[in-house]
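An instance noted here:
***
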Amino acid sequence: MTKYSSIAALLFASVLAACGTKEVQTLTGLEPHARVKFFNFGVNAPSVNFYADATKMTAIQSTTGAESTTGIAYGGVGAAGAYSSLDPGQHTLAGKIAAATDKDLTIASVTTTVEDGKYYSYYMSGFYNTTTKTVDSFIVQDDFPISDDTTKATVRFVHAISNAAPMTLFVKSTTTAAETPIGAEIAYKGATAFITIPSGSYDLITRFNGSTTAAVSRTGVSFVARKVYTITARGDITVAPTTTGCAAANRTCLDNTSNR
């Protein structure tokens, strides 16, 4: 046993010598990232792929091996509504035409700085100009709170209708008829803070300052406890809204997208 133990000790020492003095790498966790959600709410805008600098952030799956020319159409959100990961720092976020005609032409862009651990939403908005082939865009931070309250949902309002005056979003309970304003009146490209409300079913109504008439409305929207939602007004304010959803092109509507 002594002989075998000595041989084992010599072999172990040889292995250590072969390893040298290089230190073992210490893993400190995941790489830092920001998160961005992308919306095509530009009225009459073509379908696009969204980019951060030269990196494509969203795309439509192709079954042919060639890049799809479908892209994210008006009213759509990239990555099926999920956030895309982005390195912290300054980036140019852009929508580029997905179709074969004018392929990869940038029609909207915003240069902004995103921070580690924070969430953002990038919107194409306003009206697409067919002459200049451009459309508005803007970005807002999604600084939603994390709540453990099993009776409350969290909601905020974003104004993305370029030809509409500032307005306020109200949520009206379908059981009690009580109305709650979601923050204060906001202008185009503005966003309210996130507001906590009881979970349940609501009718959504926006009103201009001093008016009792609904500017845009939507009925029967459910807010689930502990989830976070963004309600975005989009479309052309001169086109009559529908109360049930956002199916018709250019029609004013209140988009409901979950943040969390």
